[in-house]
Design goal:
This protein is an alpha+beta fold. Helices cover about 30% and strands about 25% of the residues. One of its GO terms (molecular function) is DNA binding.
Length: about 120
């Protein structure tokens, strides 16, 4: 899956446009709720070895908020990793060019959107 497909999905589904807040990492795109500006996703291009993948070069991933009970199951499957630079109990990193299907990624985006919809209680 390519980042453009994710951006098209969130634009059509949630009215979200990617935000590029970091000058040092201009390709890192944050997905935010329109009203609260709270994050529900982060698309990044990382060195493969940062995720423990034995491969030269970079890989594209998305970080998504996820139900902690689901994270354990997902991390045992290929294409899912502990959240890169985020809370590993509540976030997960998904490899975009991997075995995870488009439908699964869209379902996880929807879950992340719902989990981040409201502020902390």
């Amino acid at each position: 899956m390519k980042r453009e497909q994710i951006f098209a999905y969130v634009r059509e589904t949630y009215g979200t446009e990617p935000d590029y807040p970091w000058a040092k990492s201009p390709e890192y795109a944050v997905l935010r709720h329109r009203n609260s500006r709270k994050w529900y996703g982060l698309v990044m291009n990382l060195p493969a070895d940062a995720l423990g993948i034995e491969k030269a070069g970079n890989v594209e991933v998305i970080n998504l908020k996820c139900d902690p009970f689901l994270i354990g199951t997902l991390r045992s499957q290929e294409g899912y990793f502990p959240a890169y630079h985020m809370n590993k109990e509540h976030w997960i990193t998904v490899l975009l060019a991997g075995p995870v299907s488009e439908g699964e990624i869209f379902d996880l985006i929807d879950l992340s959107y719902d989990l981040t919809r409201y502020g902390k209680k």
